[in-house]
């Protein structure tokens, strides 16, 4: 059996602020992971990634990040994505500042 | 201190103007990220985990009050009110926005600072002993030659696309406070037959493959230094492994070819490079040197110092751990710890920066230094002023008395900020410092240097920490390897791994067991951690960490 596809979100950093951004289902960039589109199909994920990569004047370093779908939205499966989604642990800066 | 010439000022202004236009073209969509990235890196601008990061050079760690005030201004106006001092005498801003970078660079230029070559495959900020020009034990102030090297390497056309980054450090003293043995080129000012010259080491470095630098020349005369260093970089520029990023640093080139082969190639190349130097560099060197003349030290009684030392135990503790011997009678070198227990190592708020700037102006001949250990130095303070200096520092959370102690930890930004990190460093440092402050045994432990890196690139110098901690990603969980016996000084050594790593919550207990073992094993309180480790070897520490069996195996090995 082929390995099950791990759901993904499209993520990057915003060109102007450098802030972590995610691709929403409506093609807008969103700042909150909870608002990101979670993609469960591999072919669709690749298409969404290519589309997002073409938006070079908005986003830098676009890639697909592994997520677990939950009732409250995508949840990171790796601690690096968890830090990206919240901010640093030594100060309440970044996304946690706005929360 | 060195002051920009018209040429320097025009060069920086022109570079800033170019970069402003490049930023505008990037934002307008006329440059792709692939085109823009090398340009922004040349100007110290990274894109990190949560934001851009601007790395500003503090050449050889020296700055004056006005420059420190501008660093504070940048922190306040375009960042989140603080800056992070690094292990290479730079300051990093963690939250600037792309549009603001050109204004930040212009503000820096007003006080003769910039971010050029703080990134990319170029010769980076030349670092030096942070006690330069103040310490009693130096042959000569290393900063004039560091400045000469900075001028030579800045925008050097042959060295803008090197196989990898290239780092140079200079010391003027036998006692190495600049970690010259862990640099691509380490330079030590030496004296022979009454003449100043330079001992040159090559091929040191930490990172994935740590190496201690090897001596390539025992004495290079002043007039030959630039052509000689140019020959070294030039040989590596051709020979360095561009096929593999992990084998590209000169330490690998030296390791693969052997120091004799490299020396022969450098000597051959030197015959070429020396012809291009007509003595202009010597004239420039003399002009630079004149600007580093020692300040006019004053003669005054030290009674105020003695009185405070005898009466105030808090001042006494600070004086005992944070002061070092100065070459001028009645003076001291005062270190300002940026390692308050539980705080982020190397961070200073804008307000603290301004306080330090004012202290430098009022009591320190308008000079400050940044150490590779992420602290700040007032290099020239008369002892009679120290009680007042200490009082002001205390009022601003800057009087932590822990220089060289277990809580004076080097920590890289780690995964809290860095895009390359594999684990966090800062919280580990915070927890260790907090724990040993609670235990109240810091002074009893004595000199013990902990250095933490959040990935194998080793910005936190973990290999040369008496205790080194390396954060890794083990199957999606933060895991920390511990090394013992590293040394960053003239007796440099790479630490030895204790064994399997520890989960984040296991690091503090492991450090406690290591420290308990040291205190049990040491022959007297005077025997430092490093001396004890060198005498006993790994065995007792292994037993303490992993049990009797592991210790026995270590003893047998």
UniProtKB/TrEMBL annotation, chain A:
Region (Disordered) location: 68-99
Domain of life: Bacteria
Record's protein name: Sulfite reductase
From TrEMBL, chain B:
Keyword list, A-Z: 4Fe-4S, Heme, Iron, Iron-sulfur, Metal-binding, Oxidoreductase
Residue ranges of domain Nitrite/sulphite reductase 4Fe-4S in the record: 119-272, 407-553
Iron-sulfur keyword on record: yes
GO molecular function term, any single one: 4 iron, 4 sulfur cluster binding
InterPro entries membership: NIR_SIR_4Fe-4S, NiRdtase/SiRdtase_haem-b_fer, Nit/Sulf_reduc_fer-like_dom_sf, NO2/SO3_Rdtase_4Fe4S_dom, NO2/SO3_Rdtase_4Fe4S_sf
Domain spans labelled Nitrite/Sulfite reductase ferredoxin-like: 52-111, 345-395
Record's protein name: Sulfite reductase
Organism: Salipiger pallidus
């Amino acid at each position: 059996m082929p390995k099950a596809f791990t759901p993904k979100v499209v993520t990057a950093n915003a060109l102007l602020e450098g802030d972590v951004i995610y691709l929403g289902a409506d093609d807008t960039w969103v700042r909150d992971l909870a608002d990101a589109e979670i993609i469960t199909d591999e072919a669709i994920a690749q298409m969404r990634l290519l589309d997002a990569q073409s938006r070079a004047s908005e986003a830098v370093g676009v890639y697909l990040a592994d997520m677990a779908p939950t009732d409250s939205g995508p949840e990171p499966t790796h601690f690096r994505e968890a830090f990206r989604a919240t901010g640093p642990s030594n100060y309440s800066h970044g996304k946690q500042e706005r929360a | 201190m060195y002051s920009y010439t018209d040429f320097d000022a025009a060069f920086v202004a022109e570079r800033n103007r170019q970069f402003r236009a490049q930023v505008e073209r990037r934002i307008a969509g006329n440059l792709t990220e692939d085109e823009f990235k090398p340009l922004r890196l040349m100007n110290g601008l990274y894109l990190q985990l949560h934001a851009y990061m601007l790395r500003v050079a503090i050449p050889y760690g020296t700055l004056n009050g006005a420059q420190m005030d501008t660093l504070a201004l940048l922190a306040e106006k375009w960042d989140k009110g603080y800056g992070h001092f690094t292990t290479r005498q730079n300051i990093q801003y963690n939250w600037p926005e792309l549009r603001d970078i050109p204004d930040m660079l212009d503000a820096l230029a007003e006080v003769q600072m910039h971010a050029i070559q703080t990134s990319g495959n170029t010769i980076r900020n030349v670092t030096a002993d942070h006690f330069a020009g103040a310490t009693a034990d130096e042959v000569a102030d290393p900063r004039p030659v560091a400045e000469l090297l900075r001028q030579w390497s800045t925008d050097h056309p042959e060295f803008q696309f090197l196989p990898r980054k290239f780092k140079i450090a200079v010391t003027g003293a036998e006692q190495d406070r600049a970690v010259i043995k862990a640099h691509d080129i380490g330079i030590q000012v030496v004296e022979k037959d009454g003449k100043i010259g330079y001992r040159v080491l090559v091929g040191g470095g930490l990172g994935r493959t740590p190496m201690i630098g090897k001596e390539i020349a025992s004495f290079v005369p002043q007039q030959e230094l630039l052509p000689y260093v140019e020959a070294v970089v030039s040989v590596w520029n051709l020979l360095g492994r561009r096929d593999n990023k992990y084998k590209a640093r000169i330490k690998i080139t030296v390791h693969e070819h052997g120091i004799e082969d490299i020396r022969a190639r450098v000597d051959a190349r030197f015959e070429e490079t020396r012809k291009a130097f007509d003595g202009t560099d010597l004239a420039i060197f003399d002009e630079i040197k004149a600007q580093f003349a020692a300040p006019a030290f004053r003669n005054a009684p030290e009674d105020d110092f003695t009185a405070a030392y005898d009466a105030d135990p808090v001042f006494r503790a600070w004086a005992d751990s944070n002061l070092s011997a100065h070459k001028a009678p009645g003076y001291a070198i005062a270190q300002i710890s940026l390692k308050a227990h539980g705080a982020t190592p190397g961070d200073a708020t804008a307000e603290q920066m301004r306080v330090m700037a004012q202290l430098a102006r009022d009591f320190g001949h308008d000079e400050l230094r940044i150490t590779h250990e992420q602290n700040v130095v007032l290099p020239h303070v008369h002892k009679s002023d120290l009680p007042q200096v200490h009082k002001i520092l205390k009022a601003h959370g800057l009087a932590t008395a822990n220089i060289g102690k277990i809580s004076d930890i080097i920590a890289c930004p780690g995964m809290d900020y860095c895009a390359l990190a594999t684990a966090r460093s800062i919280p580990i440092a915070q927890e260790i410092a907090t724990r040993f402050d609670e235990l109240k045994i810091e002074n009893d432990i004595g000199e013990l240097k902990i250095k933490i890196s959040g990935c194998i690139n080793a910005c936190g110098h973990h290999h040369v920490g008496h205790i080194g901690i390396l954060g890794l990603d083990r199957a999606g969980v933060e895991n920390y390897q511990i090394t013992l016996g590293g040394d960053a000084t003239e007796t440099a050594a790479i630490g030895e791994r204790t064994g399997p790593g520890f989960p984040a919550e296991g690091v503090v207990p492991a450090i406690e067991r290591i420290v308990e073992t040291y205190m049990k094993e040491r022959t007297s309180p005077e025997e430092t951690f490093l001396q004890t480790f060198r005498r006993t070897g790994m065995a007792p520490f292994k037993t303490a960490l992993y049990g009797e069996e592991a210790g026995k195996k270590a003893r047998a090995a």
